[in-house]
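User: two proteins, same treatment. go.

Assistant:
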Amino acid sequence: MGNSNSTSKESFILVGFSDWPQLQGFFFVIILIFYSLTVFGNTTIIALTRLDIRLHTPMYFFLSHLSFLDLCFTTSTVPQLLINLHGLDKTISYGGCVAQLFIFLALASTECLILVAMAFDRYAAVCNPLHYTTIMQPLFCRALTIACWIGGLVNSLIQTGLVTAMRLCGHQINHFFCEMPIFLKLACEDTEGTEAKMFVARTIALACPAVLTLGSYVHIVRAVLKIKSRSGRRKAFGTCGSHLVVVSLFYGSGIYTYLQPVRRYSESKGKFVALFYTIVTPMFNPLIYTLRNKDVKGALWKVLGRVTGPGVVCEEEKSQ
């Protein structure tokens, strides 16, 4: 690879969790279980929203895109992590690293925007129920989703382009995948200008969606407080509370990693924080968004063939 201080851009070594060799077996088992649950849960949601006509609504349309994003998002990093934990070969090519960074940033940015779309959908349903069907028309939902995907891709192109323009020193990446702050740590040159440009892009792609999403839930909570039924308020708060926990976990861990100065970024802490938005939230999203949802439960039993009569549909409609 040469003897110069500047990397030859041939390959990198992903250190991962090599600092804790006694825990690598434990990490492998736990992460494999989490990844398997993520794949099963999100694939199930995607299949159900396609197979059951009752789930052909804006809420489930956005949820299916979130599940697809989570499925791809976690797959862009976890298989590489499992290989590194199980084997001795911890190398990744420069091209593979840049490709992983681009895919990861594109999916993460798109998910930030999709969460805004989902929050807006719930805001329209709760705060403007009479105009909900007028606002959330199929064409508008598709356009909103396309805009989210385009926004994510553009943000990823900008940040990945800035990374590939930098001259890097060293071949060790103290992480389990190729993440942006690590590249800035490896830079052989002054990155102040690059960091400023990236900060603007990250604020638009991460901080702004977080504010819009949380703002939507604030309005939803205000509307829920006006519900006279105590049981209705309790049910609504339970659902909104679980949604907020997952959203806050995703945005919070992302903001911690991407909106702090690189000089303050701790590589050891960063690896564990990254586990939340790469493994934990993609696994919990299907559970949180569907665990108390009778429509999804009914669709699941229907697909499995355990319920064939109209009783379930009537019971669900009655319980809503």
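Protein 2:
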Amino acid sequence: MDSQVLLGVALSSVGGFSTSIGALFVILSQAPSLKMLGLLQGFAAGLMLSISFFDLTHNALNSLGFLRGNLWFFAGVIFFAVVAKFIPEPTVAPPTSDEKKVGKEGNKGIMKRRRRQVLISGVVTAIGISLHNFPEGMAVYLGSMKGIRVGLNLALAIALHNIPEGVAVALPVYFATQSKWEAFKLASLSGFAEPLGVVIVACLFPTSLNPEILEGILGSVGGVMAFLTLHEMLPLAFEYAGQKQSVKAVFCGMAFMSASLYFLRISLPEDM
């Protein structure tokens, strides 16, 4: 493997493995209550929406124009809406008065169904974060081609940016499975998409990649992430924490990720 590719893999791994740090914050603390889980799901939804609209879709609109950018975005939405029809989803309603009278065994069944729903939400979040991390690995690789200082600065900025993403993945998985290893493993795998992105881009596009096609694909990724957030994460947050509190958590997550994206953007060289 070319030395430039090895450098890109090493630098992108710094950012990718920082999702593991976020997972550590989760597994070293106690499992959250349902209300806290709902608030944190709302926060994670804000992270995902900010990435989708303020980063991926925004760049596609600027690069491709309003019409083509929107076509790519909604292509991603429609694609995953079709995929979602083939993904079995448990529907978990709040316990009724009859269910409350069942006793401990009934409560265990309700909690089991809730944990299954939360687990699906965690897997969905991991998919969305992985799709987002993939182009970040490409950015580190392109930055390292300009110089090791540029690549290292970008890798460190992405590492700080990825820590809350690790939390967003690990938290629902830890709650659902009660397994620290499963939560840590899935969060770490979502970060592994960054060095994987370097390898795939280096193999498929050894010379150059059409920037318009790249921006279009990333715009579609933004559509996928927006659909995942509104279809999976927000309903769960509303159910467990209530609409008012969840909406506040969503905007807190959006503000946090927007600040993270800003500091990431100012660390990029102007010509990238």
